[in-house]
Design brief:
- This protein is an alpha/beta fold and about 325 residues long.
- It has a domain of about 220 residues: P-loop containing nucleotide triphosphate hydrolases (Rossmann fold), CATH 3.40.50.300.
- Helices cover about 40% and strands about 10% of the residues.
- Strand 2 and strand 3 form a beta hairpin.
- Helix 2 packs across helix 3 and helix 11 packs across helix 13.
- The longest helix has 15 residues.
- Bound molecules: 3'-phosphate-adenosine-5'-diphosphate.
- The site of 3'-phosphate-adenosine-5'-diphosphate has 22 residues, from helix 4, helix 7 and helix 14.
């Protein structure tokens, strides 16, 4: 139905704001973002803020939550760069921290998407706003893609526990390429183009290496508050990763749980195979604006280590490894 223009609409369209008009926080942020460097190349232009590149809508939200998100000492924050295993980490941490509430036979993950059981701090769920996170009871399990240096004060220095998951940049890039081409209508990025942008540090939430380095250094400085994990390590020994996560999150597995195979049950429930077999992760989805449609299944593609070899040449792989190694010089972090 067409929206009828009211006299007040017409007035606001033609008159300038009154002298004492205070612009909303949102419009101040939008104005500020319009002054920042922008660059084309990905499915949408990215904006550079404090060396990191973001989609404008994401940066808006990151700047907004600097005021609206009030960290609590018992918050648990799952931090990742996109495509590094966020869905998997959400499933694992949710299952571990809620294991006394739910049985494996009747578990929320059997009917709810892992992305939906743990909200992002800076990305409101559909139809929600930033009060969503504030309304949650403690202890909260939250997620973010924000760099460590952009976590609101209190989250980066208070008692919050932060789990950071990173992944081989080659597999991360391949996953990103498929994701953008699938969710953004009309997007047809090539491996060659995203590869050269990624190598320059120009990627959503990139430079990739700076994002990792910040969390890595914080995990060394504050090991009881920041746990640094790698996708490949979880893949090679998931049971051990569950034990480590449970211990770090203050809910270590008991001897009884060890002998009854709880870690193995968690691994099985959160595995790529189990999650992709569930209807909730196969059908349905949400539109985000006119151009983006997020199928529930888009968060599950191959779930493998080393898929990059099917999408880039050996030389490209070696070049990216060299760049990342060089950028991480002086840091013991290696991929
Ligand atoms: P996000 O950061 O955009 O929220 P994220 O979960 O990190 O999503 O990205 C999806 C990747 O995680 C996909 O990787 P691929 O493209 O290389 O396949 C997806 O397959 C993988 N993934 C999702 N769930 C699991 C899981 N349970 N185990 C292993 N990998 C998984």
């Amino acid at each position: 139905m067409a929206h009828a223009t009211t006299p007040s609409d017409q007035e606001s369209a033609t008159k300038s704001p009154p002298a004492d008009h205070v612009p909303s926080k949102e419009s101040q942020i939008k104005d500020f973002i319009s002054t920042l460097p922008a660059r084309e190349g990905w499915s949408q232009p990215l904006i550079q803020y404090k060396k990191y590149w973001f989609r404008p809508q994401m940066l808006e939200k990151i700047l907004l939550v600097q005021d609206t998100y009030k960290p609590r000492a018992d918050d648990i924050i799952l931090a990742t760069q996109p495509k590094c295993g966020t869905t998997w980490l959400k499933a694992l941490a949710f299952t571990i921290t809620n294991r006394s509430r739910y049985s494996f036979a009747d578990h929320p993950l059997l009917t709810r998407h892992p992305q939906h059981v743990v909200p992002f701090i800076e990305i409101p769920s559909l139809g929600m706003d930033h009060t969503e996170v504030e309304m949650l009871p403690s202890p909260r399990l939250l997620a973010t893609h924000m760099p460590m240096s952009m976590l609101p004060p209190g989250a980066s220095s208070g008692g919050c526990l932060v789990v950071y998951l990173c992944r081989d940049p080659k597999d991360t890039l391949v996953s990103r390429l498929h994701y953008e081409n699938r969710v953004v209508k009309g997007c047809n990025l090539s491996m060659d183009s995203v590869f050269s942008m990624f190598c320059e540090g120009f990627s959503p939430y990139g430079p990739f290496w700076d994002h990792c380095r910040e969390y890595w250094e914080e995990s060394l400085a504050r090991p009881s508050n920041v746990l640094f994990l790698k996708y490949e390590e979880i893949m090679s020994d998931p049971v051990q990763a569950v034990r480590e996560l449970a211990k770090f999150l203050g809910v270590p597995l008991t001897e009884e749980e060890e002998s009854s195979g709880v870690a193995e049950e968690v691994v099985k429930l959160c595995s790529f195979e189990t999650l992709t077999s569930l209807q909730v992760n196969q059908v349905g989805g949400v539109a985000r604006g006119n151009k983006v449609y997020l199928d529930n299944s888009v968060f599950f593609r191959k779930g493998k280590v080393g898929d990059w070899t099917n999408h880039m040449s050996q030389e490209m792989g070696e070049k990216l490894d060299r760049i990342v190694q060089q950028k991480l010089q002086g840091c013991e972090l290696v991929f």
